[in-house]
Structure formats: C-alpha cells, structure tokens
Design brief:
By secondary structure, this protein is α+β, with helices and mostly antiparallel strands. The chain is built from nine helices and 17 strands. The chain is about 30% helix and about 30% strand. A hairpin with a 2-residue loop joins strand 3 and strand 4. The chain is globular.
Amino acid sequence: MNNDNIIEAYLASKGIFPAKRYRNYLIYHAPYRPDRTPSMKVENDQWFDFGLGEGGGLKQLQQKMGEVTNLFYQETGNAHEFASRSEDTMRLNYTKDIGTNKVLNQYLRSRGISIPIAKKYCREVYYSIGDRKFFAIGLPTINPDSFALRNKDFKGNLGSGVSFFSNGCIGKRLLVFEGCFSMLSYWQLFKDFQNLLNGDVLVLNSLTNKNKVENHASKYQQINLYLDNDQSGKNAAQELLNRCDNAEDLSPLYENVNDMNDYLKEWNDMISSMKSIKR
C-alpha cells in the first residue's frame, strides 16, 4: 500500500481492497452502490466514479458512503444527532413501521424483498443532513437509535454497530451476513423452509466489524457465514474460518454472483421467465 494514498488506506480500513492494480492508480468496485464491473478509480488522494461521473477527495468519498468522521452520539430534545467536526450532522428525526412509504416499498420490491419480511427486521428511517431531509430502509443496530441505511441512491450508516436478532437459538446456530439485504434475501428465499431459518442472526453492516463474530462463536455449535463473493468478503470469511473452528463458509450457495440479494434476483428472474413461457 502506498502510504501517501489516504483513500487507499481509508478503504482498506473498511475491508475494501482494489479489484485491479495498475502502476499509477487503482480500480475498485464502488463501495456505495451496486457495481459489478469495477468503475471507481483511485489515484493518489483523489477518486473518480466513471459510472456516475463523480469524484473528489477523502471527504467527498466519506460523504458518498454516508459516513461522518469523529462520530459521537448526543441527545437533543426529542430527536437524536450523530454529530462530527464537519459542518453537517446526520440527525434522526423519527422512524415508522415498514410499509407506509410508497417509494421505499418500491425499492424493496426492486430488491425482491416483501413487506412482511422487511417489516420483521427493519424500520422506515427519516433523517436529516444539515437542512436536507431524507428517508431510507433502516436496519437497527445494537446501539440506540443507530441504523444501517439503504435506499435507491444511498448506502451508509446513521451511527454504527452490528445488528443482532435472537430467534431463541443460543447454543445452536448463528447466521452471519455482511449486509442488510443479504440477510433479508436469505429470509425471502427460504421463508418456507423452517430448518434453514432456525438460527440467530448477526449482520456485520461493515467488514470492519468482522471481529464481533468471535464474541459470539463460543455460544453456538455452528457459525454459518454468508459474506459477499468479492475479494474483501472472501478474505474476511477465510480469516473467520481460521479463527473459529465452528465456522463454515456457505457463500458457494451463490458462487456465480456477488451476494445473496443478487442470487434472489436471479432466482426471481428465472421464475418470471418460466411463467411467461406459453404452453
């Protein structure tokens, strides 16, 4: 790693590594949006996304990823702010049950997720950055008023932390997912197979949280890993396999795509194609 490249160092701290290395620059999968073909160039202290035609320095990349430096939590009246030394703060305004926002409902459908599945784990989160107001699907983390956020245009976090859901399976099996939609997709795919759903759930929300798996490993007979099939996901899975004797990498289930959500969408496309065939 070039120590002068602060963006490379920043991305590496998130478990994100180049898809291709050239003599004077690096090429990444854009970490803030679906990007099957690597299209983000990093050279020295600048990045540029050829798919979006956007770029900038470290601050702009952090903003694109929905992160704020030097994060801390403070309570202000009936709302909560996640503030930093930067001008903008991410402010949690309120949350609602999944299903009330038509735009978010459509986003869930585009990802192949039903309202009942999403409603079991997520919330509609309404938040502000400075004077601008936004909304997203929010997966609650173990920290108060903290969410992993997803909508059509944004992938980031309000606060930080892993997400954990107990299904009464302590001592049996823990299902570990890299992100919110991988977890939701698993439940969507196997909703009719109770034996596959019999496990507690840990969502890392960032590969920087992979060490949290070890905090749970001793409590379970099995640790099933469903991390992404990109290089950073494979590296994290191998590290966890080396550390936890009871861990198993189950990413071969979706080995031809990047993650469980891609697998779900391919499955849905296949079913739709079969239904459209005229008898």
